[in-house]
Amino acid sequence: MAASFHLFFIIFLSGFAAFPIFSFVYANANTTQHSWTPINHHLYHSGEGLIEKIKSLVHRHPDKLTVETIQAGTKDYKADITVVTYSQNWEQSGDKSKLRILLSFGQHTRELISSELALRILSALGEEQFPPEMDAASLHDTLENVVIKIVPMENLNGRKIVDAGELCERRNGRGVDLNRNWAVNWGKKEKDYDPAEEYPGTAPFSEPETQIMREIAVSFNPHIWVSVHSGTNGLFMPYDHKKSTPDGLPSQRMRELLDELNVLYCSNRCLVGSGGTAVGYLAHGTATDYMYDVVRVPMAFTFEIYGDDKASGADCFKMFNPIDQTTFKRVMDQWCASFFTLFKLGPVCLM
User: Fold this and answer.
1) Cis (ω within 30 of 0) for the bond into 281?
2) Active site (annotated) includes residue 215
3) Which ranges carry the Peptidase M14 domain (predicted)?
4) pLDDT tens-digit series, residues 234-266
5) Which of 10, 195, 203, 287 is least enclosed by beta carbons within 10 angstroms?
6) How many Å apart are CA 190 and CA 173, to the nearest integer?
7) 325-349 helix and 112-125 helix, angle to the nearest 10 degrees
8) Domain-located, residue 4
């Protein structure tokens, strides 16, 4: 492979949730100390600021939204995860006949746009800012029979590092890639493995963040799981750790739903398929593979909502996040609408 072509792939694929930036790119980012493009604070909240804004939103809508903070850890390292639950009739939120959807944002901390989308979706669920082409009546009809749990920032400890200026950091507060810390095919390392990018921890679920997420998933038992990232535009299904998709009808239904979203919101330009196949690199110990294989979530997805393939590998903020108001709004509107279509089509696809 020609050197220039190889470099293009490194820059283009570096943000993909299941795959690492290669070591020389990360080293370049570290020697630079700061991304070439700083965080646009007119568009992006700090991690703690975003959580506070979400809590305020929830408190304005106690008839639809509730919030809790779950803690785990040891004496030396602790993590807090905020979880918001949506249900039109809170007394029926435990109704097992309703469709249960679990969404996680901000697992990789340099992908700030992910958690901003969580805020946008919650604003729509609170009916403060409707998705494009949707009004109160259609929103009510779409959400009447669903319960949604949203984790707006899975990795707050790591986000604090990014907010302090290390804009290429994606791991948690003690250097573990949370999307390598799950039990399915944990610890296997590809030839391009870089511990500065994808260190999987000392054991599966060694990290309090993944322990909390596992507990949420097992107790909630969702029908649909989506882990939201940035770095490219893609709609991915299992598997990340091998170049194949699951067999049978469940796989067919997942693919059909992703194809529909690709037509509606990506103009057929999103990468679609399994993580391990669509891009060509394998990732081990990912959340989506665990959700599908172990928790038995019928539909388990990873959505990649933005990527700038022209950005330098050291310019992490620009690579993973829109930097101008127009692009930011387009991404928010496009992907917020896609999630509400997912909420609407999910029950049909699961029949």
Assistant:
1) no
2) no
3) 43-327
4) 999 999 999 999 999 989 999 999 999 999 999
5) 203
6) 24
7) 60
8) no
Amino acid at the residue 151: V
Residue 265 placed within a domain: yes
Instruction: Answer yes or no: is pLDDT of 21 > 60.
Output: no
Number of structural domains (the chain) is 1
Residue for token pair 């697992």: 107
Q: What is the CATH number of the domain that holds 255?
A: 3.40.630.10
Measure the CA–CA gap between 45 and 51, rounded to whole angstroms: 9
CA distance 257 to 151: 23
Query: Residue 22 domain-assigned?
Result: no
Selected residue with higher pLDDT from 314 and 211: 211
Q: Which domain holds residue 325?
A: 47-350
User: Residue 320: which of 3, 108, 78 has the closest Cα?
Assistant: 108
Residue 114 CA neighbour count, 13 Å, CB half: 37
Is 63 a domain residue? yes
β strands within 167-270, DSSP E: 224-229, 232-237
Task: Please tell me which residue in 116, 166, 197, 304 is annotated as part of the active site.
Answer: 304
